[in-house]
Write a structure and sequence with these properties.
mainly beta, about 5% helix, four-stranded antiparallel β-sheet
Amino acid sequence: PDSCRTNCKAASCGDDTVDSGESCDDGLFNSDTVKDACRSNCQTAWCGDNVVDTNEECDQGPENLDAPNACKTNCLAPKCSDGIFDDAMGEECDWAEFASDQEPDACRTTCLNAGCGDLVVDSNEECDDGNDVLGDGCAPDCTIETYVPDPGDIIITEIMQNPSKVYDTLGEYFEVYNIRNFDIDINGWEISDGGAESHVIINGGPLLVPAKAFLVLGIEASTQLNGGVVVDYQYSDILLGNGSDELTLTYKGALSDTVAWDGSPLFPDPKGAAMSLAPNKFNHTANDLGASWCEATTALPSGDFGTPGEANDACP
C-alpha cells in the first residue's frame, strides 16, 4: 500500500490496492451503480451512496430524509410504525410504539385513525361492534340503535285481572313473551288500558325480555303480598277490569300488542284464575280472539291459578 507502482505511478484509488484513506479498491470493478461494490472513491458501499445495497430497502443518496414518504436516513423504506406519517402509503397517522388497537382515539397499529368499526368506542361514538348489522343494538354509524318494535315482537300471553285469594290491587299481573330471536329491552315502553290509565316503564336500567322467553309485570312485586307471584317489574296507575278492558304495549308510538277482553261471552271471565293464551296461539293476531284464551289450571302458592313466567297451560 501507498508505494510507487511498477509503472512508476503514485498509489491511487482504482489501482486495485487498498491504500491509506481507502476502505476498498477493486480496481476496474469499482462501481457507483453495482450493489455492494467498492465505490469509485474507494469506499465500501454505504447507506446514502444512492445504490440499494444488501440490507437496504432504498437509497436515494442525499435525498434520504426522515420525512414523510422519503427513503429514511437508515435506508429503510417508509412503513407503518416508523413514527413518520407517510400519507402516500395510505397512512392516516403513525404513532410508532404508542399506537394502540384498544385505547379510544389512538392511532391504530395499522396506521389508520380511530374510527367507527374498529371495535373500540371512541370519544365521538356511542358504541362500536365492528359490523354493519342493523338491529343488533349498535348502528353502522356507531350510535346506539333505538329499537322500535314491529307488531307482535312482544305479545301478551297471560292476564290475571281478577284474583280471588288476594286483593286486585295486590294480585293483578300480566305476562309478556318475546317472539324474536334476540333480547328486547322494554324499559321506556308504555302500558295502557282501554280508559285513561297508563304507565311508562321506568326500571332504572334495561328491562330485558329474553329471546323466546317470558317476563311478568305486576301491580305488587312482594311475593308475601301478591299471592306468591314472582314479578319482574312492578307497575302503577293501572287496574285491570274484571269485566271488559284492554292492555296495550307501545314504544315511541309503535304498537307491539294489544288485547281487549269482554268478560264473556267471547273471552273467559275467570275469578281466581288467569286468562291464559293457548301455547299454539302465541302471536299478536291470534291473541285478539277470545277463542285463543282459556282459564289457567296450574295452582299458584295463594290457591289462585296461573303460570306467570312459565309455559302456559294447554287450552281444551
